[in-house]
UniProtKB/TrEMBL annotation:
<feature type="transmembrane region" description="Helical">
    <location>
        <begin position="70"/>
        <end position="90"/>
    </location>
</feature>
<feature type="transmembrane region" description="Helical">
    <location>
        <begin position="166"/>
        <end position="187"/>
    </location>
</feature>
<dbReference type="GO" id="GO:0022857">
    <property type="term" value="F:transmembrane transporter activity"/>
</dbReference>
<feature type="transmembrane region" description="Helical">
    <location>
        <begin position="40"/>
        <end position="64"/>
    </location>
</feature>
<feature type="transmembrane region" description="Helical">
    <location>
        <begin position="444"/>
        <end position="462"/>
    </location>
</feature>
<keyword id="KW-0813">Transport</keyword>
<dbReference type="InterPro" id="IPR002293">
    <property type="entry name" value="AA/rel_permease1"/>
</dbReference>
<protein>
    <recommendedName>
        <fullName>Amino acid permease/ SLC12A domain-containing protein</fullName>
    </recommendedName>
</protein>
<dbReference type="Pfam" id="PF13520">
    <property type="entry name" value="AA_permease_2"/>
</dbReference>
<keyword id="KW-0472">Membrane</keyword>
<feature type="transmembrane region" description="Helical">
    <location>
        <begin position="313"/>
        <end position="343"/>
    </location>
</feature>
<feature type="transmembrane region" description="Helical">
    <location>
        <begin position="235"/>
        <end position="256"/>
    </location>
</feature>
<keyword id="KW-0812">Transmembrane</keyword>
<dbReference type="GO" id="GO:0016020">
    <property type="term" value="C:membrane"/>
</dbReference>
<feature type="transmembrane region" description="Helical">
    <location>
        <begin position="118"/>
        <end position="146"/>
    </location>
</feature>
<keyword id="KW-1133">Transmembrane helix</keyword>
<feature type="transmembrane region" description="Helical">
    <location>
        <begin position="194"/>
        <end position="215"/>
    </location>
</feature>
Length: 589
């Protein structure tokens, strides 16, 4: 393997990704999720979760009652204009702050300092409850629409509320299964959902216009106003009718909550939001016009016992219960697919609040329990003392004296601590009896880097001919993965070991960190290669390949951060994350 494998040329896409990661860090967020969605996938997901023309089929009853055709037509136009304006405004803020928190993060950045904490907390919870309710609305409409079809086709069917509840939970459960156990297939599912969304529109649109027995006049569609809402004020009634159009054009901000899982979100998220509103608004308005021109009598549609005027309208247009059922099934299918698409955005909203510790103690209790276990493990490792010469029998191997065994124990002790600190960097900030001491100028990453140097210094003292070399792979990976650029000007970092330790390591005046890191990376490459030659197991070289990818990603992040933004991401690229990216559960594959 080439030694310069970690030095990659910075391409535009890679630079853009590192800009996004560093910008998220500057906003106080750590890149904790993989960028597993493409722009097309997010666009598909946003279009499908809105499902505007299908949603009109379930909400038009409100508009027909409160305003009639005028409420649907002009309400739809106003809703599209308002949605486009809102999407443009949110897109502008997302281009500056592309995080999963979305609106409540915007509030935290832009609100007056004296009230930003309260306002961002309030906006976050309002948005979260809104997304939960919005996610629950799609399967509810689908479940009750299924009951409507049963009423249409089975006159003896007696609808019960618990029937709808069971259907609702079945749809929610199926969507949950797809999102949890089929998450790797979400891109395929969303692409297929977009195709169904467009194809179903084309089929329904053509059938409605072609087979309808009569067509209403233009004056019926564009000028007829009917107020059957019970409100004496036509203005109030018309405003209530607007709900039909406003509801079906919400959800485009779902792209914001997936911003951390897509490349170049500063550009891609505004594009997805505006495009989804434009596409869905166009399809929805066309569907509304087709229905209004072909629906027949309004009163007959509203009087249906199915609960959904669209079922009666389609039965009137086609003259067939079977055809009406088939066309309505496309709405139900799209409601299910919309639920699948709604889950990622709503779950990311809850996750973002939990990450910001705003979930009323839920995440805090989980974190505190895990942190307590980590702290106890750290304490046990600190208290562990390797056996001395008197406690270990002679190995009868001149290449592997007892001192090498003691040194291996010390190496593993430090390696366990370093891995623990990589997973729980908060431990380094706890003011207790620490192995690593650093002044206030130094951050936790520099402390971990110092531990890495100490481990490698101990390993360097072991000859390549020693029998303990076969045990060095994991410590080399743990220590080697920490060899990442962490600051431009590095103050003195000192790692002090307790006096009872035989080996004391000291890192002095790291004025040229690039050279030191390069030196130790070369050392790790040589020693892992030597271990591979000594043991002859291919998985050892796989460990080196993982390290090369860790270093490549770290160098890419460092170069993009320092040269383009003037600041540096304060997070390590972790070797277990790289293994996960490579679909490796263990180093052995």
């Amino acid at each position: 393997m080439k030694r310069n494998a970690s030095k990659l040329e910075l391409g535009p896409d890679a630079i853009s990704e590192q800009i996004t990661a560093t910008r998220s860090h500057n906003l106080g967020e750590v890149q904790e999720v993989k960028k597993g969605f493409s722009r097309f996938t997010i666009l598909s997901m946003t279009i499908v979760l809105m499902a505007t023309w299908e949603a009109f089929s379930s909400t038009m009853a409100t508009a027909l009652t409160s305003g009639g055709p005028v409420s649907l037509v002009y309400g739809c136009i106003l809703a599209i204009i308002g949605a486009m304006a809102t999407a443009a405004s949110l897109g502008e803020m997302t281009s500056m702050y592309p995080t999963a928190g979305g609106q409540y993060h915007f509030t935290a950045k832009l609100a007056p300092e004296r009230c930003r904490n309260f306002l961002s907390w309030l906006v976050g919870w309002i948005g979260t409850f809104g997304w939960i309710a919005f996610t629950g609305s799609a399967p509810f409409l689908a479940a009750t629409m299924i009951q409507g079809l049963l009423i249409l086709n089975l006159p003896s069917y007696d609808p019960q509320r618990w029937h709808g509840t069971l259907l609702y939970w079945a749809l929610v459960g199926l969507s949950t299964i797809i999102n949890i156990w089929g998450s790797r297939l979400l891109a395929v599912v969303e692409g297929l959902s977009l195709f169904i969304h467009l194809a179903a529109f084309l089929v329904n649109f053509v059938v409605i216009l072609v087979v309808t027995p009569t067509k209403n006049s233009a004056s019926f569609v564009f000028t007829l106003y009917e107020n059957n809402s019970g409100w004496s004020s036509d203005g109030v009634a018309w405003s209530i009718g607007m709900l039909s159009s406003c509801y079906v054009l919400t959800g485009f901000d779902g792209a914001i909550h997936l911003a951390e899982e897509m490349p170049n979100p500063e550009v891609a998220v505004p594009y997805c939001m505006l495009s989804s509103v434009a596409i869905n608004g166009t399809l929805g308005f066309a569907f509304v016009l087709a229905i209004l021109f072909c629906m027949g009598d309004i009163d007959a549609a509203l009087a249906t016992n199915t609960g959904y005027p669209i079922i009666e309208i389609l039965r009137y247009i086609t003259g067939s219960n079977a055809a009406s059922t088939a066309m309505t099934c496309t709405f139900i299918l799209m409601a299910l697919l919309a639920t699948v698409a709604l889950f990622p955005s709503s779950s990311r909203m809850v996750w973002s609040l939990a990450r910001d510790r705003a979930t009323t103690g839920i995440k805090e209790s989980l974190d505190s329990g895990l942190m307590q276990r980590a702290y106890e493990l750290e304490k046990q490792v600190h208290e562990y003392r390797p056996p001395d010469h008197s406690q270990i029998g002679d190995t009868d191997d001149p290449r592997t004296p007892v001192s090498h065994l003691i040194r291996i124990a010390q190496i593993y002790r430090l390696a366990v601590l370093l891995q623990l600190y990589q997973s729980f960097p908060e431990l380094l900030e706890i003011a207790s009896d620490k192995m690593v001491q650093h002044d206030t100028r130094n951050n936790t990453l520099l402390s971990m880097l110092a531990m890495s140097y100490s481990i490698l210094t101990l390993i360097a003292a072991i000859p390549r001919t020693s029998g303990v070399n076969c045990l060095l792979t994991l410590p080399l990976i743990i220590a080697g993965s920490t060899l990442q650029q962490t600051a431009h000007c590095v103050p003195e970092v000192i790692l002090s070991l307790p006096s009872r330790d035989i080996i004391a390591a000291e890192i002095l005046a790291l004025n040229n960190q690039d050279n030191v890191i390069s030196y130790w990376r070369d050392f790790v490459r040589e020693r892992i290669t030597a271990v591979h030659q000594y043991v002859g197991v291919a998985a050892i070289i796989r460990g080196l390949e993982i390290l090369e990818k860790v270093w490549a990603q770290a160098d890419l992040k460092s170069a993009a951060s320092s040269s383009l933004l003037g600041s540096l991401s304060a997070t390590l690229v972790l070797w277990p994350d790289v293994m996960a990216d490579e679909r490796l559960e263990t180093i052995l594959g």
